[in-house]
Specification:
Cyclic-phosphate processing Receiver domain-containing protein, 115 residues, 42% helix, 5 strands, cREC_REC
Length: 115
């Protein structure tokens, strides 16, 4: 089980696997069991996908993680991703309309150190 962080620019938090593109994120979701997924919306000017496209593929393919955070700075993108997930997610998936707290990031980093 992994934690997955999708972002084309930001540094990956400790305890997470990094996907720099939507395609890479989806490949990892298909190949690994994902516990926590943290999504960016804007994935670079040369990217063929944005966060909404990733969410749409997750819904279409049933690749739901246990928990999702939206760490993007794009307010409209965050709202789009949240709304799509909210309308289609399974009842057991936990959805947050924002980034992880420092406390949660620290907890995950500490757990990664111990494993």
């Amino acid at each position: 089980m992994i934690h997955l962080y999708l972002d084309d620019y930001r540094r990956c938090p400790k305890g997470f696997a990094l996907a720099r593109s939507g395609e890479e994120c989806l490949m990892m979701l298909r190949e690994c069991k994902v516990d926590i997924l943290s999504l960016d919306y804007e994935l670079g000017f040369d990217s063929e996908m944005c966060g909404r496209d990733v969410v749409t593929a997750i819904i279409r393919e049933g690749l739901y993680p246990r928990e999702v955070y939206l760490h993007t700075s794009s307010m409209s993108g965050k709202q789009e991703m949240y709304q799509l997930f909210y309308e289609h997610k399974p009842a057991e998936m936990i959805l947050h309309n924002g980034p992880m707290s420092d406390k949660e990031l620290h907890r995950i980093a500490k757990a990664a150190e111990l494993s």
